[in-house]
Amino acid sequence: MNKVFLIGNLTRDPELTETAGGVSVCHFSIAVNRSYTSSDGERQTDFFNVTAWRGLADTVSRFCKKGGKVAVSGSIQMRTYEDNSGQKRTAVDVIAQDVEFLSTKNQSQGDEFFDAGDKPASSPRKKPALQAFDDDGDIPF
Q1: Pairing of strands 43-53, 15-18
Q2: Quick one: how far is CA 116 from the chain centroid?
Q3: What's phi and psi for 66, nearest 5 deg?
Q4: Whole-number Å distance between alpha carbons of 61 and 18
Q5: How far apart are CA 119 and CA 56, in angstroms?
Q6: What is the pLDDT of residues 93-134, one digit of tens each?
Q7: DSSP at 60
Q8: Distance between CA atoms of 29 and 15, rounded to whole angstroms?
Q9: pLDDT averaged over every residue in the chain
Q10: Which of 18, 34, 94, 125 has the smallest count of CB within 10 Å of its CB?
């Protein structure tokens, strides 16, 4: 089974592109703090490259910004490539299956986390009126 769950902050704005076939793909990276500190008291951080596809890619690129906190679930994919000097390199990517947005506009301390087109609720919604229920006491089954 190949499954990973990460919670962290975006290290840069997501980059949305399209494949030659017109499929949306979004690349972003997150910084994830380790659950322990080093011997000098510093908390260590790991950085993960994440790829989201199709509708999820569009959603992430629209609502996520650098610094926003997200929870990512998906799988790990390893790939090899040649760098500019011709050396073989290995990269580890997370392929997102689900991304939960954990930051709100208020928590981003003035930075725009959501699109400017998204309007916060100006007033709480009214509760729907309940209708009277005729109960004759008989059990319906």
Answers
A1: unpaired
A2: 19
A3: -50, 135
A4: 12
A5: 21
A6: 999 999 999 987 655 444 444 443 444 444 455 666 666 666
A7: H
A8: 10
A9: 84
A10: 125
